[in-house]
Automatic annotation (TrEMBL):
<dbReference type="InterPro" id="IPR009078">
    <property type="entry name" value="Ferritin-like_SF"/>
</dbReference>
<keyword id="KW-0560">Oxidoreductase</keyword>
<dbReference type="InterPro" id="IPR017635">
    <property type="entry name" value="Benzoyl_CoA_Oase_BoxB"/>
</dbReference>
<dbReference type="InterPro" id="IPR052703">
    <property type="entry name" value="Aromatic_CoA_ox/epox"/>
</dbReference>
<protein>
    <submittedName>
        <fullName>Benzoyl-CoA 2,3-epoxidase subunit BoxB</fullName>
        <ecNumber>1.14.13.208</ecNumber>
    </submittedName>
</protein>
<dbReference type="GO" id="GO:0016491">
    <property type="term" value="F:oxidoreductase activity"/>
</dbReference>
<dbReference type="InterPro" id="IPR012348">
    <property type="entry name" value="RNR-like"/>
</dbReference>
Length: 472
């Protein structure tokens, strides 16, 4: 199979789609529905064109092309990473057997469900972010938003291809449903809770791309290990694009912290509200919310479903090949977070049922890296304040801590005390109103809003004052 994409086709692809006319026709009939969804639920800000990268090759070098593209003409396509003919299953009861090129009948329903859930998150985030272009703090940031959006659209294509190619009539029906559910809809919401939350401002967008897209990185990382080779290779390529989304979040929050610090120093005051900035305590509240909501995406601390997925070879662990164990885990154990004797603690369970906890801990460690980065900005400016990840039990709606209330420091408190004090820890209506009030668009080349610092580097070696977006 070639590495490069065939852009002469109606649907760009590197999967030799022209060799399967039935599949090609099915996907070409789905394509107008996707474009209708993009027009009705995608970005609302009119643009002439945007400086976007488009995938052209799945190899290690030169995989993307940059250029100005009208978003409605963006060439969404289907790309699988390079085929390793010698690849073997790396874990579970089928370990060391050849990977599967077709779906084993006994795992059909479980694999389809995993693909549908992953697929459902992709258009959801586009829907959540659809109005943000109108309040972009710079053309650079507007371009980054739209790059994230078109790549989430391509990730939807990735999952729809698998549903059409390998799951027959049921798969085609599920592909249609991916366009019929909508983020925040009362009648047909998205499957996972975090993808029904509003993203009404750019601080939320940067937190989402840092914390929630990072969850996506870890979920894709487990599916990349899958014994079902087309899913594995699809996710491996998606991870290339996902890294940019997290870069947008990491550097976006970094730039907000940098600007807040500059305003604090300039005015010799912690109160930057009067000077058009976002106070550090408000940044911390947004961090608390998005981090805790994203922790819930990993599910309960223990899960027999995930144990079964691992044993069957459907879904591995993060960086499975680096693990120093037998990759079967039938006799291993793990300590998982729990409420024990009325206190926040841990309990020992079989490693197989604790795989959600294993993945969540990898994620938490990764999240801390960004917090350390933002704190270096504070430290270098001589500030004593620091940002921090709240305790794992804070503001949880899924799993062991869903029935209790805890402070960001991990202290168990009564429900009444939580209600009395949650405004100190989570964004209040006043906090949100202030942040929204700052979201005044800056659409002039080389200019930027006063609540965020400019980036240190532009896109693809272009300067910050490059015309990243041409508006009507």
């Amino acid at each position: 199979m070639p590495n490069s994409a065939d852009y002469s086709e109606k649907i760009p692809n590197n999967v030799e789609l022209h060799e399967d006319r039935r599949l090609q026709r099915a996907l070409e009939s789905w394509q107008p529905n996707f474009l209708n969804w993009w027009e009705s639920m995608g970005p609302t800000l009119p643009t002439r064109d945007v400086y976007l990268r488009t995938a052209v090759n799945v190899g290690r070098e030169g995989w993307a092309h940059f250029g100005h593209v009208a978003m409605k003409d963006y060439r969404w396509g289907i790309f699988l990473a390079e085929h390793d003919r010698d690849r073997r299953i790396g874990f579970g009861e089928h370990k060391d057997e050849p990977v599967w090129q077709q779906v084993p009948g006994e795992y059909r329903a479980a694999l389809q469900r995993l693909i549908v859930i992953q697929g459902d998150t992709e258009p959801a985030s586009v829907e959540q972010q659809r109005n943000l272009g109108a309040t972009a703090p710079s053309l650079y940031d507007m371009r980054n938003l739209f790059q994230v959006n078109v790549e989430e659209g391509r990730h939807l294509w990735a999952m729809v291809y698998l549903l059409h190619a390998y799951f027959g009539r049921e798969g085609r029906a599920e592909a249609e449903e991916l366009l019929h559910r909508n983020s925040g809809s009362e009648d047909s919401p998205r499957i996972l809770g975090a993808f029904n939350e509003e993203t009404t401002d750019w601080l939320s967008f940067f937190m989402f791309t840092y914390f929630t897209d990072r969850d996506g990185k870890y979920q894709l990382g487990t599916l990349k290990e899958s014994a079902f080779d087309p899913l594995s290779r699809t996710c491996e390529f998606m991870l290339k694009e996902e890294s940019h989304h997290m870069f947008v979040g990491t550097t976006g929050i970094d730039r907000i912290v940098e600007r807040t610090v500059a305003l604090m120093i300039e005015h010799d005051s912690d109160d930057v509200v009067a000077h058009g900035g976002i106070p550090l305590p408000v940044i911390q509240k947004y961090l608390n919310f998005h981090y805790s909501v994203s922790l819930d995406l990993f599910g309960s601390e223990t899960s027999t479903n995930v144990a079964n997925y691992f044993t069957a070879g459907l879904k591995g662990r993060w960086a499975e090949e680096r693990r120093r164990d037998d990759h079967r885990l039938t006799s291993e154990s793990i300590m998982v977070d729990a409420i024990t004797d009325g206190q926040i603690g841990q309990t020992e369970v079989a490693a197989l049922v604790g795989l959600n906890t294993d993945l969540r801990r990898e994620y938490i460690s990764d999240c801390q890296n960004g917090v350390n980065r933002w704190n270096r900005t504070l430290e270098q400016a001589g500030m004593t304040a620091r940002l921090h990840l709240p305790h794992i039990a804070f503001n949880r709606k899924v799993g062991a801590f869903s029935g209790i209330e805890a402070t960001p420091g991990g202290e168990l408190i009564a429900a009444a005390e939580w209600e009395a004090h949650k405004g100190r820890w989570l964004p209040t209506d006043i906090d949100k109103a202030h942040v929204r009030s700052l979201m005044q668009p800056v659409h002039e080349r080389g200019k930027i809003a006063g609540w965020i610092a400019p980036p240190r580097h532009g896109i693809n070696d272009k300067p910050f004052d490059y015309t990243y977006v041409h508006l009507p």
